[in-house]
Write a structure and sequence with these properties.
alpha/beta, Maf protein, 7-stranded mixed β-sheet, 5 helices
Amino acid sequence: MEMEIIFFTTNKNKVKEIKELATAEAKEITIEHREYDYPELQLEEIESVARESAKYMKEKKAIKEPFFLEDSGLLIHALNGFPGPFSAFVFDKIGNEGILKLMVDKRGEERKATFKTVVAFCKSPQKAPLLFVGVAEGKIAEMMRGEGGFGYDPLFEFEGAGKTFAEMSTEEKNEVSHRSMAFRELLNYLS
């Protein structure tokens, strides 16, 4: 059964990754991108940000078709999970260079980090958003590496790969990334 789902985001890089995954793994699902800059609430957890953003789209914007949006965050263990749900804001303010400065005296295990994505899916206006979570473990690299990816990808070295997300091809990243894991959970639910 063919299904079209709207993906709300202003990030064209995320759209590219998600569409490639859908094409490779769920040919019966079509992703329609709609660029809408909904308010990204500054809440304590990534799950809360995704849930409340989806509720906003459903209730305030009266979106009735099936849709999803996602929120991602980089959680650096030595910094008590910072920047976490504030990742986009922090990236805009201090970028990767600022994160490297915060990590300058951290070594070994102190550089551990988790990348987390929460996909919030709304099937119908009457139901609460369903959340699908994906997590990738790794560490903050000593310096930015790689030409691909976006955001924190040049800093995040995936556990056991010896490569940052920015050093991986889109296909490699889609095999292991937090976003792909969360989106696969959604695809499994839909199929």
